[in-house]
Design brief:
Layout: E1 42-45, E2 48-51, E3 70-72, H1 77-83, E4 84-86, E5 92-94, E6 97-100, E7 113-122, E8 125-133, E9 146-151, E10 158-163, E11 168-174, E12 180-187, E13 196-205, E14 208-215, E15 221-227, E16 234-241, E17 247-255, H2 259-266
Antiparallel strand pairs: 1-2, 3-17, 4-7, 5-6, 6-17, 7-16, 8-13, 8-17, 9-10, 9-16, 10-11, 11-12, 13-14, 14-15
């Protein structure tokens, strides 16, 4: 099991919550329900304070990480070529961001698949991504209109997938037969017809993984955890799948989480 620096065992939790914090700083108490016993990064879910790392940070700041984290932004073509490779329906660099889609939604999967991967491999690490998404229903593929982050390999590792058509956040990995296995699912509201700034966080330590997804419009924060045997090292992968509208990615950070983030991710209140 994952442990915080104080030795607390991870307790898995699913759900969503409201948040209102600035980058790199602890939130001020939202109401009288907060007290000295509440976790420092917490939100109210059905009247219970739950720990969420993304309630204390906004925009994937470097303060979430130990020194030396790799910061990827997308204003320079040469820097992107050094740090990443792309295939199939490759994303385009537009206005300092990577644009995934919109896809033609044809029957050819390669027309609707926009994967990129880091040149560097990572082992135990956390990835945080900030992106803009406009989820839509997909009558052909309920798992469509999706954005995915993966650790330790694209198909081989653990993937955090935001399935816009289903309004789901999932942790999943491939079986030896090549099928996707869902380890954890959290429902989100994901309003239709509105572009929202979202953040996704995925942390892996050994065979244990923790993820959060934050919706910038509703303030929901979905939390997931899973245990699975995947390679101990591999690339970070990012993918847009059957996107009805353009998805814009403007920041990715990869490294070891700070002690404050570890405490939030492993607090028993999750």
């Amino acid at each position: 099991m994952l442990r915080s620096p104080s030795g607390v065992l991870l307790i898995a939790g699913l759900g969503f919550a409201l948040s209102g914090c600035s980058a790199g700083a602890a939130a001020a108490p939202a109401d009288a329900a907060r007290n000295k016993m509440d976790p420092p990064c917490s939100v109210s879910i059905d009247g219970v304070m739950r720990s969420r790392a993304l309630s204390c940070f906004r925009g994937c700041p470097v303060e979430m990480f130990e020194p030396g984290a790799a910061v990827y932004e997308f204003a320079d073509v040469a820097a992107f070529s050094r740090g990443w490779s792309a295939s199939h329906a490759s994303p385009a660099m537009v206005g300092g961001m990577l644009r995934f889609g919109p896809h033609p939604l044809t029957g050819n999967r390669w027309d609707n698949d926009s994967p990129i991967r880091t040149s560097a491999a990572f082992g135990n690490a956390m990835v945080c991504a900030r992106f803009r998404m406009s989820p839509q229903d997909d009558p052909v593929d309920p798992g469509g209109d999706a954005f995915q982050l993966s650790l330790r390999g694209e198909a081989e590792g653990m993937a955090l997938t935001i399935e816009g058509a289903r309004s789901d956040a999932t942790l999943r990995s491939r079986t030896p037969a090549g099928d996707w296995r869902r380890h954890a699912v959290a429902k989100m509201s994901l309003p239709r017809g509105q572009q929202q700034v979202m953040e996704g966080l995925l942390y892996g330590s050994g065979d244990h993984f923790i993820a959060e997804v934050k919706d910038g419009i509703t303030g929901e924060i979905a939390a997931l955890s899973a245990t699975a045997q995947v390679p101990q090292s591999g690339v970070v992968g990012i993918m847009g799948w059957r996107l009805h509208n353009a998805l814009m990615l403007d920041r990715v950070v990869v490294g070891m989480p700070s002690s404050r983030v570890i405490d939030a991710l492993t607090d028993p209140s999750r």
